[in-house]
Amino acid sequence: EFTPFFMVYGAEAVLPCDIIHDSPRVRMYEEREAELDRQDSLDTLEEERDIVKARSAFYQQQDRRYQSREVRAKTYNVGELVLRPPDKKKDKLKPKWEGPFIIDQVMTG
């Protein structure tokens, strides 16, 4: 609903295409009225930023819940074959996994 430009400057940007195509926003622009609107929008800008912060926190909380719901505890037993991701993956053409490796010791903790 709110663009990053709006969150910084308190008003929507006027794009070059708006000027070229003579949009209603450009056509009906009046300096005096624009200044009054700007003052009004600055008064409500802090409230709108708070709304965005609350919405962002809500979405982050939902994302954390989803991610934690997808995490499954995995137990391994001695003798099983496993794959592991490489220590450092710099080349995108390299395999995503190394192995297989045989588990010879299981550690708890």
From TrEMBL:
Q: What is this protein called?
A: LTR retrotransposon-like protein
UniProt organism field:
Triticum aestivum (Wheat)
